[in-house]
Every structure is written in C-alpha cells, then in structure tokens.
Amino acid sequence: MYMPKHFAETRVEVLHGMIHDYPFATVVAKAADGLVANHLPFELVGGLLHGHVARGNELARLDGAEVLLVFQGPDGYISPNWYPTKQETHREVPTWNYAVVHVHGRLKVIDDAAWLRRLLETLTDRHEAGQPQPWKITDAPDDHIEKSLRAIVGLEVAVERIEGKFKLNQNHPARNRAGVIAGLRERDGNGDAELAALMAQQEQAS
C-alpha cells in the first residue's frame, strides 16, 4: 500500500479499534485460477481474526494460503472550499479522506462444530446487543443450527503484519483540518459524521 509517512497509523490499539468498529473485511487470496476476493465479518481475538464461510466458498479450499484482509473505515469526498487557505491562494484541489487497515497473514480453515458455534454466539451476541430483544442462537431449533453448522467452515488468520493508512489532511495546516471537520458536519452525508469524528480524535491525539 502506498504510504506517505504523514498518513501512516502505527498505533496497534488504534488499528485494532478500527477493526472492532468496522469488522466487515475484503479478503483477497490467490486461488488456482487467480486472485479471488470475498467479503466477510471478522472477530479479533488477541492476534487472531476469526470468521466463517459456506463450504462452497473457494476460501474453504485454501488452507494455508497467504491472504490480505482490508478493513475499510469511514471515508468521504473533501471539497477545497472547506480550506481557509483556498480563499487566500486558490491553490487547493479536491481529495478523498479515508481510514483503512490492512492485515497480512495465512489462512487456517477450521472444521469444528464446537469452535464454529462459539464463534457464531460471539458474533451474534455482539451485533445483536443494540436490539430491543437480541436474537440468540438458542432462539432457533437445535436441528436447524446443527444443519447450518454443517454447511460452513471456520476461518482463522494469524496477524503477521498490520498496517494502517489514515489519510485525514495531515499534510495540511491545522486550520484547514478544522475547516474540513466543520464542512463534513455541515454536509452530514453518509459517513460524514464518522469521518469528522475520526478527524477530531486524531486532532486531540496529536
């Protein structure tokens, strides 16, 4: 990944936090007929990422394969009109701000019903937590759950390398970054609030 030094995010706790908040990853692997990409939610457990796929998925046949997992955080178009310096020099252009985490590792395929059930319980408990009446695996008939478990395999990726790119106008003066945060909050489009909040967090940490 192209990584200008001012956009590099190296704090492990920040990278793990991004994975926790945006757990839906693009998984890229090399199969017999070339590169394949799949899109799956993962759970970070220590230095391991856990997920699952249908048995028919090509990833279920790629035990030991080298993989790249891409976790995409908030992103959005940035208008040069939001920069105070644009009003002074007119030497500003549009850009796109974003945060992304890349995880490199090797895929381990797990065919273990008890392991899979624990993973599914963890995933559903976490993602159902905000519901008025959270759904649990025990809400479904046992035979249906057992049939569903037979149709999937688990995936585990040990994190060998992790890198983050948080492109948030760090190459601009602080007043331009403040202008972007204000512009995002005013526009309030899809993902703008999350991107503005991330930029504000970065400002507080710097």
TrEMBL record:
Gene3D superfamilies: Electron Transport, Fmn-binding Protein, Chain A (2.30.110.10). InterPro entries: Split_barrel_FMN-bd, TR_PAI2-type. It comes from the Bacteria. This is Transcriptional regulator. It comes from Rhodanobacter lindaniclasticus.
